[in-house]
Structures are given as C-alpha cells and as structure tokens.
Design goal:
3-stranded antiparallel sheet
Length: 669
C-alpha cells in the first residue's frame, strides 16, 4: 500500500464507513472489495472495530462508491433486528440459552440484546419489571411451532362422507367375571334378601351401636330418657322410611295422625311416631371416639372430611361392586344429592335439575342403570396429577384389575380429552364422548368444516392416529371424539325437516355411528338417577351425614330391584315394578321389626301375655259387597278378614288366601 492516498480520498466519504471497512486489510484490497457485494452486509457489522481507520483508506477505490455508501445503512437497520441474521458463516452464541423443551413447539429461539444496541427499552413499570420474571436481564425467549406441528396443522382437513375411513379396531371383551348379578341365577330371592346384600346385619349393627351412644349423650332427658334400640328397631325404622318414599306426606306427624284425612294404619302398626322421630334425631353412623379423633386432625392433611359417613360409605361401595359385574357398555357421569346444608362439601351446578347439593361421580352400567361404583367429590384434590378433576375421577372409578379389559366407556364433554382417551386406550378400554372444540388436541383447521350453508345431517371427520373427531349437524352442531368407531357407515335417522314450501316432512338424514352409540349408551347414570327419584327415601334433614344415609338406602333399594329384575328375566318370569318391589320390601322389613311402643315400660315387670286369640274369619262391614278391602296376599278385593291379625284375606274355594297367608307367615303349618 505505497501509492498516494489522494485518489481514494476524492470520493464523498460522508456516510458511516465503519461497517464495510472494519475487517483487517492485510492482503490486496481488490478481492475484499468484491466479496461484500456478493453476500449480505449484516455480518460485517458485528466484527470488532480493532483496525485503525487509516489502513482501510489505503485501498484503491476501484468500485463505485454507491455500494459502500448503501451498506452501512443496511447494517444499521439489521443491527436493530438481530433475529434477521442470515450470513451462512455466522453461528449464534450458546451462552445464556435456557433450554429447548416446549410441549407445543419443540424448539425455542433465544435472542440476546445488549443495552447499548437495543432499540427499545422497557419503562421498568407494570408486570414483569426487574429481571424479566426469572429469564435474565436483556434476554427474550420466543417459542415457535415445530416444523412437524406446522406441517400437520396445514395438512389437516375435515373430510366428507365421500372419503373412506379405516376399519375400527376389533374389540375383544375380557371381563374378570361374568357380566350380570353375581348370585345363583336359579335361586328365588325375596326383596328383603336382595336388600340385605347391601345393608346386612354386619353393616347395621355398628349404626345401631353408634345411634344408642349418640342418643343417650344428646337426646336423653329426665322426662324422656333415651331407650336403647336394637336391630329389630332399625328394621322397623327403615321399613317406615321406605314407606314414606311411596306414600308422600308433607310432615312426619301426618303419618301418625288419626283423623279421617290421614288415616294411615301401616306406620302406626310398625313403629310409634315418637320413637321414629327420636331415632331420626339420634341417627349416627360413626362412633364418638372416631369423630373426636378425626376432629383433632382438622386443619391438617390427615383430616377426613367424610369421616362421619366413612364406615357405611366404604361398605356401600364394596357391596355395589361385589354383587354385580357391568356389561361391556358403561358410563361415567355426575349425580347431585339435594341438600342446602351449610358445609363445604355442598356444590352448585346451574345446569343440573338439582342445583344445590353434594356431587357424586358415578360409574353405572349403561344397559341396566346399576350403580357399580361412586365417590363423593370433596373439593380440590390433595393429590393433584395436573390433569384435572375430570381425568382423575375417571381413573378413580375405572379399575381394569377389577373390571377387565375391552370395555366401552361413554362420557360427556366434561370428561373427554385426548390425554384421557389415549391413556384409556393403553389400558385396553375404548372410549367415546362429546368434546369441547376449544380443548387442546381438537383440530384447529376450518378447511371444509361445517358452515352456515351445511344442511342438516352433514358429517365432517378427521382421524389422528387412534382418535376420531366427528362433527355432525342436527338441530345444532355436535362434536364427538371416539377411539372405537368408524367415521361413517351409511346409517340414517329420521328427522322432521321443513321443506322449501314451509311444510314439515319426515326425512332420513345421515348419522355417524358414534352419535347413535353415544345416544344409546350414555344414559346409564341418568337411568339410575331416574329410578332413585321416583320413590326416593331422601328427605330434609339438618345433618349432612343423614342425607348420605338416606341416599345410600336409595342406592341399595334400586340396585336390589335391578338384581331382582335380571334374575326374574333370566328365569322367564315377569319381574315386579319398582313400586311393588318397595312395597313388598317395606312390608317384609316391618315383619322383621319390633312391635310399636309409645312409652318405655316402667315399674314392675309386666304380667305374662295371655295366650293369643284364635284366628277367625269375619266380614269387614257385615255386608258381602260394601266395605271390601284389598287382599294382603293376592291384592284383589275381599269382604272378609282375619279378626286376630286384622288383615283382609280372600276365603274362597278357588282363592284360599286366608290359609296361604297364615302358613307363609308361620302362624301354623
């Protein structure tokens, strides 16, 4: 570089020359002057300015000066946006990168901005001030979708029924036990025997003991001392409670009123009204010692919010699973037990018929409506898996080690999620349910999806591996997810549709198989709720644990009725309806109970009872047609009754209910 400097200095050197001329000029300048014109000028801006300014000025300015003058302007522009670097030889610094794990994108782009070159500064006020909420000062981490996710999103498209779908997997049903009642199918079980499968003597004896303990401590006064009850009193109490579910009165006292309007002989004959009320007040399911021990743990993780019902609660769940095995189609849903008690267990669900009460998660057989398992929702779970209460409730109820594999589970959109269905598939349990379109995993594409012009019966579907997503238009759009169905099978359903001229006509519209199966098998819990609601024992009470006692009675009665129904059908007999079943059960429990006594016996021991009067047949009203009553045995009208038993019975040549009834009740052989 020995030539004179005047030539190169004649050009207009007013622009910032630092960027293109910062590199050391050790060799001839002709080649370096050509290279910057082939590659973008951003990279040279980042090289350190170590060489003096005199050396770059020695190069002969053979190239036009316009290019060097424009390069600094581009360099300054790109310096303000470091994320746009594109030089092939440039490699990003690995210092300060936090990691590249992300559940949705798969990669993170880390950009380091120094305070000297940052074009924007935060004011330091508001959210995220200071050190950037743990990220480090001057550092921004941006998350972008991975190329595979972007490609799958772009490739998604809702398919019509013209596009064939793959065949669904062949489901092999392998239950651990034979589905149905776990009883001897040829035996004749009475209603009370079926009821005692759930409320056995072993279950009732602790309740009797705890009720006596609680009654003597809180409901005993000098004028009305507490009289201990026994198992027969508990049978009578349950008998009257079931009777109250069939015959409705607004008050307890109405069942024992003696006027013409409320002349109900059954409660009077089974139990005195005062004794029934005292047993209702003193009813207790847990012992005082266990209650005190649990109360001492209040405020800690060891406190049991269901401690007052735990003995009966556990026994009921075990009995429901022991006496029946579900069929292949099962359903999980919520159930509300009505209550307005002031306790934290109470929930409010505005879209349920029962809005205030205790929420139970129930697994029921879809065909029979049998309540196979349930648990009480206690609020936020102490053991949080991070997947939500809907996921945890299904995993709590669904036990493949007890049920087996190959089951078809039906749920509503509260439970349906891609994570749940994929995990169930690993357990060899297939699932189907409605789904919310804003959930993670639901297809986001709108290409060829249902729009305002789609007619009724339109079907759209997308398959992602084992998950099938279906949209179907009926009176409104319905979205479902399934792991066991095919997208379409040419099935139709009848609907009333208004034609162009305004006339209503019945037409066949396409329907996906997932919709038909969902409508057929989702109502298992609703069927159980309906059977309970017809003649429910539950009535208002001030204590929350008594509400659960009466609800457990309803569960036991309905499950016993469903067992009776399946046993009768298996033997080719006509089963009783639920009302007749409850009436028979109430009558049988009354026979197992004790005789009513209004007041406890005081003073000397009573004299021995005289020998019973002989059984005689008399006319009820002295007339063979007027004043007839229903026969206790055959339920037909009869003008006669047994004077000793005060029971109307037929006494005819072809219908000798008088002798049949006395033999059946062990009055004589």
């Amino acid at each position: 570089m020995e030539g004179p400097m005047e030539g190169p200095m004649e050009g207009p050197m007013e622009g910032p020359m630092e960027a293109p001329m910062e590199a050391p000029m050790e060799g001839p300048m002709e080649a370096p002057m050509e290279a910057p014109m082939e590659a973008p000028m951003e990279a040279p801006m980042e090289a350190p300015m170590e060489a003096p300014m005199e050396a770059p000025m020695e190069a002969p300015m053979e190239a036009p000066m316009e290019a060097p003058m424009e390069a600094p302007m581009e360099a300054d522009l790109f310096a303000e946006s470091p994320s746009s670097q594109s030089d092939e030889d440039w490699e990003p610094s690995t210092a300060g990168v936090y990691g590249q794990e992300d559940s949705t994108s798969g990669e993170e782009e880390t950009i380091s901005l120094t305070p000297a070159k940052s074009p924007k500064r935060w004011s330091g006020r508001g959210r995220g001030r200071g050190r950037g909420r743990g990220r480090g000062r001057g550092e921004i981490i941006r998350t972008s979708p991975s190329p595979s996710d972007q490609a799958s999103t772009l490739a998604e498209r809702w398919n019509d029924v013209d596009v064939p779908d793959i065949e669904p997997p062949r489901i092999i049903f392998c239950p651990n036990r034979t589905p149905g009642p776990q009883l001897i199918m040829t035996e004749n079980y009475t209603p009370v025997q079926l009821f005692q499968l759930f409320f056995s003597n072993d279950v009732l004896l602790p309740i009797v003991k705890n009720t006596n303990e609680h009654g003597s401590a809180h409901y005993s006064t000098p004028s009305h001392p507490w009289t201990n009850i026994d198992l027969r009193d508990m049978f009578s109490f349950i008998s009257v409670a079931i009777y109250m579910g069939v015959v409705k009165c607004s008050s307890y006292t109405d069942y024992w009123r003696g006027d013409d309007l409320y002349s109900l002989p059954f409660p009077k004959r089974v139990m005195a009204g005062r004794k029934f009320r005292k047993m209702t007040w003193a009813l207790h399911l847990n012992s005082a010692a266990m209650d005190a021990e649990n109360e001492g743990r209040r405020g800690t993780a060891a406190f049991d919010r269901l401690g007052k019902i735990k003995p009966l609660y556990d026994d009921m769940r075990e009995a429901c699973k022991r006496n029946y095995h579900p069929n292949q189609e099962i359903a999980i849903d919520e159930r509300m037990v009505a209550s307005k008690a002031r306790i934290g267990l109470k929930q409010y669900m505005k879209r349920k018929p029962v809005k205030w009460g205790y929420k139970l998660f129930v697994l029921a057989d879809s065909k029979a409506g049998y309540t196979w398992d349930f648990f009480v929702y206690q609020g936020k779970s102490t053991v949080n898996t991070g997947k939500g209460i809907s996921y945890e409730s299904v995993m709590e109820l669904l036990k493949p080690q007890l049920l087996g594999t190959g089951y078809k589970l039906f749920v509503d959109n509260f439970y349906t999620s891609t994570t749940l269905f994929q995990d169930l598939l690993k357990m060899k349990v297939w699932a189907c349910g409605t789904i919310r379109t804003n959930l993670i995993g639901f297809p986001r594409t709108t290409e060829n999806s249902l729009d305002s012009k789609s007619p009724r019966g339109s079907v759209r579907w997308i398959r992602k591996d084992s998950l099938l997503y279906v949209q179907w238009r009926d009176t409104r759009d319905v979205s479902l997810c399934s792991t066991l169905h095919q997208a379409h099978a040419g099935e139709t359903i009848k609907r009333r549709i208004r034609s162009a001229d305004g006339q209503w006509e019945v037409k066949d519209i396409p329907v996906p198989p997932v919709v038909k199966d969902y409508n057929q098998h989702m109502g298992g819990v609703d069927l159980s709720d309906a059977l309970i609601g017809f003649y429910k024992v539950l009535h208002k009470t001030r204590k929350w644990y008594k509400t659960f006692f009466f609800h457990f009675l309803d569960i036991a009665i309905v499950n016993a009725f469903l067992l009776h129904k399946e046993l009768a059908i298996a033997k080719g007999q006509v089963p009783m309806n639920q009302k007749a079943f409850r009436e028979t059960l109430s009558r049988d429990l009354a026979r197992m109970g004790s005789a009513p006594t209004d007041k406890p016996v005081q003073g000397p021991a009573p004299a021995p009872a005289p020998a019973p009067a002989p059984h005689r047949v008399i006319y009820i009203s002295g007339n063979s047609t007027a004043g007839r009553l229903k026969c206790r045995n055959c339920h037909k009208k009869t003008p006669v009754k047994c004077v000793t038993c005060d029971v109307p019975l037929c006494f005819l040549a072809g219908r000798d209910c008088y002798n049949d009834w006395h033999v059946a009740n062990s009055f004589w052989k």
